[in-house]
Amino acid sequence: MIVVSGIQPTGKPHLGNYLGAIRNYVKLQDEAHAGGGKCFIFLADLHALSMPHEPAELHASTLEMVATLVACGLDPANTTLFNQAQVPQHAELQWLLMGTARMGWLNRMTQWKDKAGKNREGQSVALFSYPVLQAADVLLYQATHVPVGEDQKQHLELARDIAQKFNNDFASEDAPVFTLPEPYIPEAAARIMSLRDGTRKMSKSEPSDMSRINLTDDADEMAQKFRKARTDPEPLPSEMAGLDDRAEASNLVTIYAALAETSPDAVLGEHGGKGFGEFKPALADLAISVLGPIRDRFVELKQDRESLDAILARGAAQARDAGAPTLDAAYNALGLVRG
Ligand code: ATP
Ligand code: MG
After folding, report:
1. So where does L-tryptophan get bound (predicted)?
2. Which active-site residues does the annotation give?
3. DSSP for 280-330?
4. Is the pTM here over 0.80, yes or no?
5. Whose CA is nearest to atom 25 of ligand 1?
């Protein structure tokens, strides 16, 4: 099992990122480690160049994201944790794959269509071609499992198409250069909604800070955000079916269940009949007990620039070694002379 996944270091990570993505990374890391596999998690800083960005912010966010991932339980001893900019093989392999990827394939990507809108001519070339960099990210390590959200499934299929065409065109059948990666969609990845509007997902890019619990919030901030979270005046029912038209109430129960690692129905079995005056403080206490230690560790690590640099340097060295054989095979298959 070779797990590869990336996370963009833009903005502050929040409870949705933790419950929907980072916590699964930690589980996969432990699974891969126990089974003799490997886990690669990287900061997708090169991908951040596909949109307008502020260099100083990208720099600070990259370091904060490393501190967050380690604070959440990614262990640099078991996971190869690095940023793309320190592993030039990602950009190199992307270029080698550019001859294989077809314009028509990229044109069909819904994320490109959504993000570019009507103004295609005004977009960066990076925004158009970044699925090829994503393909390089996973093919470089012969990934077998790539944890992705629904929104990234199409990009992973593109990576498979690129790998397959490259193998067909340049490799012999019994010695393919690339492994075809499989999407890995965890059974119970929670989708966490905004605390201000139960129909919108919790997001880094949402302007209102009250809409989300940041992993960097202290106990008072968390308690205040839950206290002020939008709800309705009805008490909680005793099972989820009773929450069908109550998006905000349903979201708070989902958050409770995800934090307690239990089912929403089990939460309602315990808290059914209570009003939010009682349920919200219980939820805040639970969130503080789970996220408090993560925040403390984050604050400590964030101040320790030397340790962060050491984690990234070590991860990058491991990643460069791990990717070297595949990159060599790709250069050779293409007939490039390298001395
Ligand atoms: P942005 O608003 O800039 O897109 P974001 O909050 O959506 O930021 P991303 O960096 O796009 O965060 O996503 C990082 C990971 O967190 C992805 O795997 C994504 O699927 C997951 N994720 C993001 N928001 C949520 C959410 N509200 N609930 C569950 N998972 C989420
Ligand atoms: Mg997003």
Report:
1. 137
2. 115, 201, 204
3. HHHHHHHHHHHHHHHHHHHHHHHT-HHHHHHHHHHHHHHHHHHHHHHHHHH
4. yes
5. 16
